[in-house]
Automatic annotation (TrEMBL):
It is an enzyme of class 5 (isomerase). SUPFAM superfamilies: Diaminopimelate epimerase-like. This is Diaminopimelate epimerase. The lineage of its organism: Bacteria, Pseudomonadati, Pseudomonadota, Alphaproteobacteria, Rhodospirillales. It catalyses: (2S,6S)-2,6-diaminopimelate = meso-2,6-diaminopimelate. The active site is at C76, C217. Gene3D superfamilies: Diaminopimelate Epimerase, Chain A, domain 1. It holds the Pfam family DAP_epimerase. Homodimer. NCBIfam families: DapF. Belongs to the diaminopimelate epimerase family. Its EC number is 5.1.1.7. Its main location: cytoplasm.
Length: 280
């Protein structure tokens, strides 16, 4: 079979095309990354992941992350758990360390088969973003629903978490793209709406930067867990229900965030050499 081998994986429906470039380098252009992620013209995924050799003595591999729009980013929680699971199967270990642009991430296979990733320190670098009453449209051309000020949490990538009465009632499809590109977020941002649905239990919907609404966002769940605890809505250990299912978040006393959930492999294949040379 000609063409580059790939594996299609997902964490709660947040899906990835994974290419192993440890033996044979693979350096896609932005256009090639977009094409691979395209659900009509390519294979289709939320993020395109390239596994590379790491030069760090403590890392098992380096993971490069490209959003569906071709942009390269620092963190992806669900992909970290998927790649960790691949590396665990390959090495027969239950603990592996994945290097990303955001740093070294330690992972563990739990006895129940779920994969836990320590996503590192949560940085509240633009916490409690102030929005004044009169800025209730944020100049995005639509009247906002009753949103409280968002909490800004950086998990190696930027998240703005808005707590609302009912996350299902928010028109995230309309709000997401406008807020993602709002000037208050210089690097753009992943936009979440969250509501409390029980004790230490929240509902979360995420509009991902460079992608759109996804069925689950791991770093978004971490950011929401930190934001909920910071706002005093929950304790530091919570369940986050995403469209694709639950993730378990623990904002540990050392400031790092542990995320636990399932991973799946959907299929394997080869990328047609034609695809990478075609222009749409
Ligand atoms: N799906 C992700 C987040 C991927 C990156 C994000 N879209 C960004 O641009 O920061 C996850 O599981 O964390």
């Amino acid at each position: 079979m000609s063409g580059r081998a790939f594996v299609k994986m997902h964490g709660l429906g947040n899906d990835f095309v994974v290419i192993d470039a440890r033996k044979e380098a693979f350096i896609p252009t932005e256009e090639q990354s977009r094409l691979i992620a395209d659900r009509r013209f390519g294979i289709g995924c939320d993020q395109f992941i390239i596994i590379e050799n790491s030069e760090h003595p403590d890392a098992d591999a380096f993971m490069r992350i490209k959003n569906a729009d071709g942009s390269e980013v620092g963190a992806c929680g669900n992909a970290t758990r998927c790649i960790a699971s691949l590396l665990m199967n390959e090495t027969d270990k239950d603990n592996v360390t994945v290097e990303t642009l955001a740093g070294l991430l330690h992972t563990k296979r739990e006895a129940n088969g779920l994969i836990a990733a320590n996503m590192g320190l949560a940085r509240l670098n633009w916490q409690d973003i102030p929005l004044s009453e009169e800025r209730d449209t944020l100049n995005i051309g639509i009247k906002l629903p009753p949103l409280r000020n968002p909490v800004g949490v950086n998990m190696g990538n930027p998240h703005a978490v808005f707590f609302v009465e009912d996350a299902e009632a928010i028109e995230l499809e309309a709000l997401g793209p406008r807020l993602e590109h709002h000037p208050m977020f210089p690097e753009r941002a992943n936009i979440s709406v969250a509501s409390l649905i029980g004790e230490d239990h929240i509902r979360l919907r995420v509009f991902e930067r460079g992608v759109g609404i996804t069925s689950a966002c791991g770093s978004g769940a971490c950011a929401a867990g930190v934001a909920a605890a910071r706002r005093g809505l929950t304790s530091r250990k919570i369940r986050v229900d995403l469209d694709g299912g639950p993730l378990f978040i623990n904002w540990q006393e050392d400031g790092t965030v542990l995320m636990t959930g399932p991973v799946s492999t959907a299929f394997e294949g080869h990328i047609s050499p034609e695809l990478l040379h075609e222009n749409k």
